[in-house]
Structure formats: C-alpha cells, structure tokens
C-alpha cells in the first residue's frame, strides 16, 4: 500500500473515531497541540530561526476496534498499523503538519556565502503511530514534505519580517532547491515516575532513544528529561519539534486534565538534554538528489533545554529555553531559541 494511501486511510479512520463520542472510554477525546519555536525569543535571527507545527493525537484506538459504528474497512487499517504488540498498550495515531525555516547567520548579505549555512525551508505532513503504557512509549513516524521554494518558507519569513519591521532576509535566491522529503523515524521512551506524580509534589525521569532515516535527516539520538512539580502530567513530557515529539496526550484519567479543581491544576519545571549523531542533515549538507550549496556539519551535536509547564483545566502550556553546541564547523556562535507548546485535550 502506498504511503499516501495509508495517510488518507488513517485520517479517515481518526475522523470516524472522533465522532464516536458515545463509546465508553476513560480517554474519550484526542489532544490538539500547537508548537511554535523561534530565536526571536533569544534575540537572534539566524540558523534554525522558526518552526511551527500543529498536531492532533487520537483517542485510544483499542476502544474503537470493536465499535460497530466504525466502518468495517477500519478494522484492517487498525490491524495493519505498526503498533507495538503487547497487553495494556494504548494505541494512538497522531497527524501533524509543520514548517521549519533555516537561514545563514548574516541574513542581510545578498550573495552566496559558502562558509555559512544555506537558506532552507521544509514544509511537511506526518503520521505517527504510538503505543503506550505507564512505563514505555514507542513511536513510528512517517513524514512527507518538500524542501525548497515550494515549501513557501521564503514567503513566510519575508511576510513576518515585513509585519514586524525586522531585518529583511536578502539571500533567499540561494536557498536549497526543490526536493521531496521522505523520512521514517522510530523513538522509544521510558518513564520512571517518582513519588506524588499527579497527586501532589512529585518528579519523574523520561529517557529516550531513537533514529531517523531519510533524505531530510539520517541520525541516531539519545536523551532524557527530568520533571519536578505539583500534580505532574501523566504523559511522556514535553519535547521540541522533532520526530517522536507528540508526547502531550494524557495516559489515563489520573492526569490533571481529567480532574476537577484544585486537582486539575499542575505546575512543574523540567530540564532535558539530547545528543545527536548525524549521518545526513539536508539543511546543512545540501540537497540529496541535486547539486547545491552546503557546509561541513559537525557529526555529533548536543542540545539542552530548561522550561516551565502548567496545566489548567484541559490546557497544558509550556515554555522552554533551548540551546546547543555548534552544528557546523564555520558556525560562529552556538544557537538558542524559545519553544512554546499549547495543548488542549478533548473529553
């Protein structure tokens, strides 16, 4: 079955599941998340300069597998999804769309600079298959997109800079060329919950490991996140935009988003760190199928974040300061940016 056919079938299935509101389940609705990342929050305008993503995570499909109101073809779609086998695993699907924008360190320069990263924009859609229990979360994510002028990143950045009266980016004529993007990613998370999770003061540790293969990114990553706070969310943390980052859906009815006040309020701090071993990064190496400019990337990079999160009612809101090591040899300074996520869980 073609990937595009799978994506269409999954979208149709999730729509059918979302309208079956009468079916008994502790986790009736899905979770919608808006991600926005920008180096404006840290006073710069270069490198990874903007990322935006919207995502919807379905309710647990186990509860819909035998619902007679779903069409018969949905059974075959659910059975064919690459979920982790095993008892007591919730099975959810995420649908996402987003755009990432990358620019050189000097956006005022009009000519091509071979020592600076190229202009690049990626627009994409992705479907993720998540298997979760209280301790483990497995994610397979398939991404289709385009890099180059047809991503419309140039138009987006120029429009925003005009509205905000920011420095105008002059070098988009040298951006990477049009090329389709196809990536497959796998990520596994472990959650070790400490005392008082979702019931007072508590903490948890969430390590993870994963890999991506494709013409956009081929890499291996490992990392962890620690959270400390009051009525911690019963989920797998908050991550920047990257493969496997759709972690904001509640695991069960103990999550504060399913509680009445005052138990429906949560506040916590978190820190995280990740290490990436990159074999290929199209935004640094240049086009995969066509000749283009690029820079000599660093094969091993690290990224860390510190942030705050809050839950009130059905909303989960987080802000993080993200920084990391240099990504390419001629990069003058390491980059930092701010990351905001806003999630709403239907019930």
UniProtKB/TrEMBL annotation:
UniProt protein name: Lipid A deacylase LpxR family protein
Cross-referenced Pfam families: LpxR
């Amino acid at each position: 079955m073609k990937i595009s056919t799978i994506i269409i079938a999954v979208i149709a299935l999730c729509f059918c599941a979302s309208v079956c509101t009468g079916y008994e389940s502790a986790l009736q609705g899905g979770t919608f998340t808006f991600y926005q990342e920008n180096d404006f929050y840290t006073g710069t305008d270069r490198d990874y300069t903007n990322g935006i993503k919207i995502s919807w995570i379905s309710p647990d499909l186990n509860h819909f597998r035998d619902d007679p109101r779903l069409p018969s073809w949905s059974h075959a779609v659910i059975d064919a999804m690459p979920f982790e086998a095993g008892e007591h695993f919730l099975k959810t699907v995420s649908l996402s769309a987003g755009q990432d924008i990358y620019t050189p360190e000097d956006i005022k320069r009009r000519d091509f600079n071979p020592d600076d990263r190229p202009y690049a924009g990626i627009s994409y859609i992705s479907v993720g298959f998540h298997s979760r229990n209280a301790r483990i979360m497995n994610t397979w994510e398939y991404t289709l997109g385009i890099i180059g002028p047809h991503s419309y990143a140039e138009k987006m950045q120029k429009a925003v800079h005009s509205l905000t009266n920011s420095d105008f980016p002059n070098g988009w004529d040298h951006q990477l060329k049009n090329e389709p993007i196809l990536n497959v990613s796998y990520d596994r998370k472990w959650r070790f919950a400490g005392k008082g999770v979702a019931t007072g003061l508590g903490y948890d540790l969430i390590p993870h490991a994963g890999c991506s293969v494709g013409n956009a990114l081929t890499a291996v990553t490992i990392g962890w996140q620690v959270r400390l706070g009051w009525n911690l969310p019963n989920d797998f943390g908050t991550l920047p935009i990257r493969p496997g980052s759709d972690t904001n859906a509640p695991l069960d009815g103990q999550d504060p988003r399913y509680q009445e006040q005052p138990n429906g309020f949560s506040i916590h701090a978190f820190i995280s760190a990740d290490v990436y071993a990159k074999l290929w990064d199209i935004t640094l190496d240049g086009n995969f199928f066509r000749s283009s400019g690029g820079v000599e990337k660093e094969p091993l990079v690290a990224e860390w974040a510190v942030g705050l999160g809050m839950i009130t009612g059905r909303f989960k809101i987080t802000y993080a300061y993200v920084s990391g090591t240099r990504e390419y040899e001629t990069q003058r300074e390491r980059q930092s940016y701010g990351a905001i996520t806003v999630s709403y869980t239907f019930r």
